Amino acid sequence: MDSIDKKILQQLQSNGEQSVSEIADICGLSKSACWRRIQKLEELGVIKERTVLLNARALGLKLTVYISIRTNQHNTEWATRFKEITDGLENILEVHRMSGDLDYLIKAVVRDMQDYDHLYQRLIRADLYDVSASFVMEELKVTTHLPLDS
Which end of the chain is more exposed for a tag (fewer CB within 10 A), N or C? Predict the structure, then answer.
């Protein structure tokens, strides 16, 4: 990946609605050369997907919660069931298997405490050992932009 690819990626991260022509102009490329580079970045998996970011609060999802999970089940069958359950819960945005004291860390968005309780009741069907939740009080930084200069 060269500096032009990074410039294209920076433009796409900043404004995904830019046309290929606009990106090409900014990067000093022809439209077709820019398009080929974007296609190549998609084929390589550097560009994972193109999507729209929605405002959770505007959709009534006012609480962001991080759910810490510990389990005493460390087998393939349990992990498969846990994944099936979390995949089926649309309020869950991210699920990470962790090192250290936690086994899993989940990020979810909910309307209110009642909505969280509903999510919790469905989540514990996975036979969990310990579940604790931390609710976000203030977002100091939220970004989807990845560093390209590192």
Answer: C
